[in-house]
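#help-structures
NK: newbie question, is this the right format to request a structure? protein is YCII-related domain-containing protein
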Amino acid sequence: MLAVRVAISNPEKAAARAAYLEDHKRHLRSGRLCIVQSGPILDEAGKGSGGVVVADVVSLEEMRRFSAEDPFVLHEVYSSISIYEWRPTIGARG
């Protein structure tokens, strides 16, 4: 199944975001989760306002565990995190 994590940044945690960015990237690239796509989401001014991870998982719990170990989650860089099952219907996978 595909799972999507949508995380919105906490603007008050910009210093923590900068401090843990490389650790966050290392976590995403660790190979512990089959990530299909990942990247920042930008506001209208082009400023990073969060991130999206799409992963091929066995269960949503797999995504929740991986997310809980993300340095950005551990250091509260995000103000909100939502995890969903995603069933694409249009595009290469639909």
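mod (FA): yep, format's fine, and the tokens are attached above. Helices lie at 14-28, 60-68, 71-74.
NK: thank you!
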